[in-house]
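Journal club prep — side note

Before the paper discussion, L.F. wants everyone to see what a predicted structure for a comparable chain looks like in C-alpha cell form. Sequence:
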Amino acid sequence: MAELTRTRTPRSSRKSAGLDAADFKTRFQLLADNIGTVIKGKDDVVRLALVAVVSEGHILFEDVPGTGKSMLARAIAQSMNASTSRVQCTPDMLPGDITGSSIYDQKQGLFEFRPGPVFTNILLSDEINRATPKTQSALLEAMAEKRVTADGTTYDLPRPFIVLATQNPVEQAGTFPLPEAQLDRFLFKLSMGYMDKEHEYEVMFDNAKQLSIEDLIAVVDTSEVQAMIDYAATVEVSPEVGRYIVDLVHASRVDPSVAMGGSPRASIALLRASRVLAASDGREHVYPDDVRAILRPVLAHRVIMNPEATLRGDTIDAVMDRLANAVKPPLSSRDRQKAGA
C-alpha cells in the first residue's frame, strides 16, 4: 500500500536558529547543489521545489512517467535528513490508506490509531488523479491544516510537511480530475520534462549499476530547514510590492478569457514564495522580479478559462503573459538606486 523510507545521518554542526541572509543563501544553495548531483539538468525545477519546501507549500507535477519526479522527492528528503513516504494512487484506494485507520487491539480491548503514510515530511502521491474523489479529499485537511482528524481525534503532522503529487497528462482513461478546491491547495504546478541528450547520457551511466540516489547524503537536517522556514517569514515585503501581488491576482479575475481567477490563497502563495526566492538570493527584502519569477507556477493552475476563450484558441500561457504585461510593477529599491545614479 505504501512505501516508507527514512534516512538518518549525523547532525550538522551548523546552527539551527539565528539565521541571517547569507546563512540562508548558503544552506539553500547547499541543498540545491546536493540534489543536482542526482537530478541532472533541471536546476530551475529543483530550486522551485526547494522554494515550495521552505514555503511549506505543495507541488503538483503534471508530467509523463519516468522523468524523475519520484527521484526528486527522495533527493529532497535525503538532503534534509527527512522522512519520506510514497503512495501509488489507484481507484480502489481508500482514504484510510493515506491518513491511517483505527485497528482493534484485542489485548487492551480498544481501537488504536495506526498512522498512514501521510505522517511524514515528504509525501509523494503518484498519479493522484487515479484515486477517487473521496480518497483525494482525504488529503485536503492534511495539505491545508497540516493535521489529520480520525475518530474525533486530531493528530498533528510533522514539520515540514510537503506533498509532491503527480498526474499523467497523456493517459486520461480511468482518472478523476482534481477539483478546483484541491488544485488551489498546491503552491506550484510544475513539469520536469525530458532531459537533454547530454544529461540523459550522464544519468544513464550514473544509474547503470546502482541508483545514484542511494549514495546521496544529508547536508542539513529538518531543524535547520525549520529555521529557514522561520527566517523566510521575516523577509521584508514593502507595501508597494504587496499591492503589486494583489493587483496581479485581481487582474486574473477580470481577464475576459477567464471564468475563475486566483483566490486570496493565491495572493498568500505569491507572498510566501517570493519571500523564499528573495532569501535564496541572499536578500532581506522582496523585489517585484521575485514575484514575476514565480507568477506562472503559482497562478496558472488556479485560473480556469471560459469555454468561449478556449474555442477561440486562447490559452493559460497567453493569460499569464497578459497579466505580467498589464500590471505595472513598482520600482524596487534596486531600481530606484539605478534611477538616481
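L.F.'s comment for the group: Residues 1-16 have pLDDT under 50 and may be disordered. Keep this in mind when we get to the figures.
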